[in-house]
Amino acid sequence: MVQSNDSFRALPINSQFPLENSPQGNNQRFLRFPLNGKVNGLLPLANLRGVIQVALTEILPVPQVAEFLLGIMNWRGEAIWILDLAGLLGATHWCRRENVRNSGMAMLVQVQNQTVGLLVEQVNTIEVYDSQERLAISASMLPARFKSFLQGYFMDAQGSPLMLVDTYAVIQALQSI
């Protein structure tokens, strides 16, 4: 099942973050998803082509590539890379996790005519944040290798950090392999 950007209205929108534009017009919509048991991530909706459910059996493994690259799959006649987003950011690799799931949700992003599926266990809600409230990641928060894939973070209403994924940096990492 493929959902286009317009279909995200079916996802619940967190009511704590009203959609009205602020006077400065800095509000942006993000798709929230868990990266691991403690940390959630955000992906700008503007970078999203869609979200699809992917069974691991649909992914063709490619030998001798980086571990976070799970392989390629066919999406609408196009071969796209599927990568383990949490694995790229330093979490346990998808296939090594306890209670390995046979499927996940691929957030399809496109940068410079290249579509890539960022595989996560689930997607949650669409949330709105003011881009001026984005915080920088300090050197003590994450190793520099992982920090390069993030644009910063926002704090949610409970005081938990929401890591903002830099889709351009992820695609650049893929192209450099």
What does this structure look like?
The protein is mainly beta and 177 residues long. The chain is built from three helices and eleven strands, in the order E-E-E-E-E-E-H-E-E-E-H-E-E-H. Strands 1-4-7-8-6-5 form a six-stranded mixed beta sheet. The chain has a five-stranded mixed beta sheet with strand order 9-2-3-11-10. Strand 5 (69-75) and strand 6 form a beta hairpin. The protein is globular and about 40 Å long. Residues 1-24 have low confidence and may be disordered.
The end-to-end span amounts to 30 Å
The secondary structure category is mainly beta
The helix count comes to: 3
| Gyration radius from CA atoms, angstroms | 16 Å
Give the quaternary arrangement of the chains.
Answer: single chain
The helical percent reads under 10%
Give the overall shape.
Answer: globular
Q: What's the number of extended β-strand segments?
A: 11
The poorly predicted ranges are 1-24
How much strand?
35-45%
Main sheet strand line-up: 1-4-7-8-6-5
Biggest sheet statistics: 6 strands, mixed
Mean of residue pLDDT?
80
Task: List its salient traits.
5-stranded mixed sheet; 40% strand; 11 strands; disordered N terminus; mainly beta; 177 residues; single chain
